[in-house]
């Protein structure tokens, strides 16, 4: 998106006051997102209804958010803030981890979306499809494939993802052997996964609106209410992802013309991308009724063994 702009710079990096501002502006939301994700994982263990396949997937998603926020804000941009030259000059390391995490996180989001869709559309088969061994296999595939494939791809074609001082943004490195292969691959994966997630979330929304009572009639009133709440949470997460995608793609043109070009790039790329660490977990905190209640210090009594077994099997 910004390749034609960021490649204008070729001079050696020298820290300025603006770089300190950038490091601070990215590190703070990453730190907040990091803390929120840890609280979220604790909540998944403490809230009985999240002792379930859905809770397991949420925990995995939050773990990936912890790694992502640590890599970006607590490691790289914190290095920019403190002018750690080694970190800045070797930005391709953070770039490689970031590009590995993108398909991993999207894969986990896809699992969460399909989990809610099947819970509502195929409640009788849900426990079989998402039994312990199956869900561990799904998550393993989502993690192992990008962890192995992305580094091998970047090594074989001499590709990379590097920090550019002009605009304070990570962008693809163009080489003779790589060209745009890496960019096309990553954006292709994002496009496919995003469309699949949106399709599933839209299907979940339709199920909730049109057939919610009918498809969940085999479950108790309490379980139906919980499934609807979980489904709504996933739909809201999908909406947040769409808003982020629109902002990332078009907001550069919306910023007033007198804003320096470097800051236009920063606000609509590095900053908004890392602000998503807060929103991703914030959706769970705000739109999951039981999570909100737990955070407010509401009823934290353990469910009876029967109800817990029902959600875990």
UniProtKB/TrEMBL annotation:
Swiss-Prot/TrEMBL keywords: Membrane, Transmembrane, Transmembrane helix
Pfam family, one: 7TM_GPCR_Srx
Regions that span the bilayer: 20-41, 62-82, 102-125, 137-157, 192-213, 234-255, 267-287
Signal peptide (UniProt feature, chain positions): none
InterPro entries assigned: 7TM_GPCR_serpentine_rcpt_Srx (IPR019430)
Domain 7TM GPCR serpentine receptor class x (Srx): 30-288
Highest rank taxon of the organism: Eukaryota
Official protein name in the record: 7TM GPCR serpentine receptor class x (Srx) domain-containing protein
Organism: Caenorhabditis angaria
């Amino acid at each position: 998106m910004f390749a034609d702009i960021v490649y204008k710079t070729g001079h050696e990096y020298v820290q300025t006051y603006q770089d300190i501002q950038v490091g601070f502006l990215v590190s703070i939301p990453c730190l907040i997102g990091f803390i929120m994700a840890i609280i979220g994982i604790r909540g998944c263990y403490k809230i009985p209804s999240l002792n379930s396949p859905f809770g397991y997937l949420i925990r995995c998603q939050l773990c990936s958010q912890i790694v992502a926020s640590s890599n970006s804000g607590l490691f790289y941009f914190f290095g920019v803030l403190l002018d750690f030259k080694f970190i800045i000059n070797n930005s391709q390391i953070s770039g490689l981890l970031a590009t590995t995490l993108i398909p991993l996180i999207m894969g986990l989001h896809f699992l969460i979306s399909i989990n809610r869709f099947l819970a509502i559309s195929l409640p009788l088969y849900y426990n079989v499809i998402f039994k312990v061994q199956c869900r561990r296999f799904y998550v393993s595939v989502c993690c192992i494939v990008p962890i192995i494939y992305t580094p091998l791809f970047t090594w074989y074609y001499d590709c990379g993802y590097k920090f550019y001082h002009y605009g304070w943004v990570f962008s693809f490195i163009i080489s003779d052997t790589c060209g745009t292969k890496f960019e096309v691959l990553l954006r292709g994966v994002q496009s496919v996964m995003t469309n699949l997630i949106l399709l599933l979330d839209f299907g979940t929304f339709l199920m909730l609106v049109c057939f919610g009572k009918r498809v969940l009639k085999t479950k108790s009133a309490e379980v139906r209410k919980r499934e609807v709440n979980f489904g709504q949470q996933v739909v809201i997460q999908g909406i947040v992802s769409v808003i982020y995608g629109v902002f990332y793609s078009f907001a550069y043109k919306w910023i007033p013309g007198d804003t320096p070009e470097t800051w236009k790039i920063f606000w609509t790329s590095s900053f908004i991308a890392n602000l998503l660490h807060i929103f991703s977990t914030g959706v769970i905190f705000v739109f999951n009724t039981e999570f909100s209640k737990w955070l407010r210090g509401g009823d934290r009594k353990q469910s009876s063994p029967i109800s817990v077994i029902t959600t875990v099997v």
